[in-house]
Amino acid sequence: MRTGARGFTLTVEAGPIGGTPADGLSFGASAYPEAVVDQPAQFDFYDGGGIDLAFLGLAELAAVGNVNVSLFGEGESRLLAGVGGFINIIQSARALVFMGTLTAGGLKVEAADGRLRIVQEGRMKKIVPEVCHLTFNGAYAASLGIPIVYITERAVFEMRGDRLTLTEIVPGVNLQHDVLDQCGAAIAVADNLQEMDARVFTEALLASY
Q: Are 28 and 10 in contact (CB under 8 A)?
């Protein structure tokens, strides 16, 4: 993604520049792009430092800021998802935002009136003592001065120093029960812990931002 005085331009590794990227199984496509280049050219742009800010998913997150998006499970059920363009993006972007839910496996939430309600908690904690496959090294990236933020549906974390720090929680959730108890590893809490903007959890259009 490139940002500037006029706003921002979204890109997808498959080649679309501008427009609205698709999600789910349609990932790689984009509605109404300004241009579509071939994938090698897009990666040349990425590898050359063209990304100001990158948004990426996360499957496992360690207390030291490491991320796993490539290998999951144990034994015969182990799944190799691979990394795709993930490595190219994290090595060249000037700032990184990782996004995912705090738990997985049956998680159900409801957002209304500026608050979030956990209807059903997920069976698996995604913050773990150590990721089973290292796809992103948080401490190394932080040592280079790269800003790193991890956003979940109920809490926001930042890489501060050499560890993950909780900086924001969503209105309506309980800090201990809904956040800290759902982390599979000890997490530092910022002294100035804040609540996320309640407007995000309403049905109002975000154009007012």
A: no
Cα 41 to Cα 55, 151, 164, 200, 209, distances in angstroms = 20, 30, 35, 36, 34
Calpha distance 104→151 (Å, rounded): 15
Position 209 scores a pLDDT of: 47
Place of tokens 């144990």: 74
Cα–Cα distance for residue pair 71/78, rounded to 1 Å:
7
Beta bridge partners of 3: 8
Please give the chain's pLDDT, 209 residues, in tens: 555 445 789 999 999 999 999 988 898 899 999 999 999 999 999 999 999 999 999 999 999 999 999 987 766 667 787 888 899 999 999 999 999 999 999 999 999 889 999 999 999 999 999 999 999 999 999 999 999 999 999 999 999 988 899 999 999 999 999 999 999 999 999 999 999 999 888 877 665 54
Active site residues: 13
B/e letters for 88-116, b = 16+ CB within 10 Å, e = fewer, are: bbbebbeebbbebebbeeebebebeebeb
Residues near 118 by Cβ (< 8 Å), separated by ≥ 6? 107, 108, 109, 154, 173, 178
